[in-house]
Amino acid sequence: MALLVSGCDAIDLSELTQRDAMTRVRAEPPGEHCEFGGDAVLTGLDQDRDGELDDAEVTATEYVCDDAIPKVRTRSRAEPHGMNCALGGQAVESGLDRNANGQLDDAEVAIADFVCATSVSNVLLRVRPVAPGERCPQGGQVSHAGHDVNANGLLEEEEISQEVYACNEAAPVLSRVRALPAFAAPCDGDDGGGAAVEAGPDLDGDSALTTSEIAATDYACGLAAADLKLRQQAEPAGPNCPRGGTRVEAFEDRDDDGALDPAGFASTVYVCQATRVHDGSFVIADPADLVALEGVTHLRGTLTLSAPTLADASLPSLAVIQGSLTVKGNSSLRRLSLPALHFVGGDVAVRSNARLDALALGGASGAVLWVERSLFVEDNPMLPTLAGLAAVQPRDSIFLRANNAMVEPGPLPRVVVLQGSLVIKDNLRMDRTPFVNLARVHGDVRLTGNAGMPAPSGLEKLTRVDGTLELRENSALEVLHPLAGLGSVGELHLIGNPRLTDTSGFTRLSYAGRIFIQGNKDLVSAGNMPVLEQVTQDFNVRYNEKLQRVHRLPLLKSVSAVVAAGNPVLTSLEGFSQLTRLNTLESLGNAALMSLGDLTLLRELDFLSLQGNAALTGFGLPELARVSGAFVVVDNAKLPTCQATALLASVFQGDPVTGVNIGGNDDAATCP
User: Fold this and answer.
1) What pLDDT shows up at residue 4?
2) Cα distance between residue 47 and residue 596, in whole Å
3) For residue 62, which of 43, 36, 35, 37 has the smallest C-alpha distance?
4) Prediction pTM value
5) Closest Cα partner for 380 from 343, 430, 345, 325?
6) Are 282 and 259 in contact (CB under 8 A)?
């Protein structure tokens, strides 16, 4: 050996014997070495010097094992009625049992789902919070609903038929005091009016409290708006507002010292931070759709309920519908309840619901339900009352038609003024109207075909109708006295009411654009309007087979036209005795009328037409001095022709060729 070394002094022995130690780490699956998995640390020499530790080079293995994975734990608790579950239910909370104590502690809760009770059997609702993000910038909730097809009490993914997002929208609270005019509801018993305290969230950010934003209202009758001051304070979470909100205090402060006057008025309303908004219109076509909408308080769109299988529809949290509400064609629906509703931006239409017998919209906490357009309640044959609409106040029109189970409709006290019309038609049993505070209608009022209505009761406070007031074909109508407060009407139509015997009852009517009375079979007298002064168009009585007289119009001095046609027993026009001028005087086919002598002061006419009056024997117009347009006297069998020609000669100032027609009268009679 020594000889070899001494003979090869250029050879380095380390190059022949040294190998580098290497380490390699690989994942270790759960198993024999690590129950919950981990890492295997492999060591050895790089025998082939390739810079890697090959499997054959491993000489030792050590294991670094993971700790046990925390188990997922769940727990449930009762969830009260509120924002998460409108009807209550169960909160199901889950998370990792990080301290391995075998239960889910409060700090370990990661997810909370709500399994909510529903008003519909076999329909499940699951509500899950939504974190702030693109879908809901301030967070909110998502509701999933569907039928429990496999009857296991769990809403599984494949059973979900409806998903609804309801996003939180916190907003500053606005408040105001608004003056109420005299006799306006609910201060209709106070001739001084009052003040309304209104508050709500500024959802559109315009710093103005709009009708749709009003969430809380109270009233101070007999006080002027200037007598009240407002103060806002934060309201902590509690019985008044489950999630907190704003307390708005109103107090009487006539001396402006910033404090409540001794024995003064004080009130508090609450605006709770509970607004959850769904963007877009929504159609309820089956029970799952209804259940999914239960967490929404504001709907930015229209709501349509058309679900043939739904028997009971309740949305206890829905407060605002920015579009219209339509409930139509629900053949099984018995009850509809939206108690929190206080604003609808379009129409409310409840139509053709064959079995509906309970209807309640709004009214929670005494708030008004503002309807920006019209209210339609039509063709609901089993609906007995409108008492559940007592909070409704439409801006435009109201239509009540063919609700044949309705007898006493119940008062609608919030309806004071209508910008549009009121139509009550074909309600076979309704015996009165529900509009006990209605004072003015800018459009028409039409009561037609209401077979059980003996009088227009409920309209005692009506003072003005700018359009037409029409009572037509009401087979039980006998008296008109509930209209005693009416002072002005665009047109008055009394048509085809077979039991009406006279038109008395209009004791304060001073102005009418037109009066038209036709086809009232038992009508004996027309008129009885003691303060009527002006009719700008015609006073027209036609085809009333028992009408004997038009009388008791002592102040009537201005009428454009008097027309009487086809009244076979009419003998007196005494009611027109104060008239001195008419555009038109027309008597057609009044078989018993013998004379026009009741118009004793009439001096001037544009158009005179007397035709087919079988008993007419004379004109009886001693003051008549001028007829300027047309003179028509035809087919009056007992009227001497010589009287007609003599009157023509003395008063007619028109075109004798085109303006005169005399014929078919008594040519044989002589004149003095």
Assistant:
1) 40
2) 140
3) 43
4) 0.80
5) 430
6) no
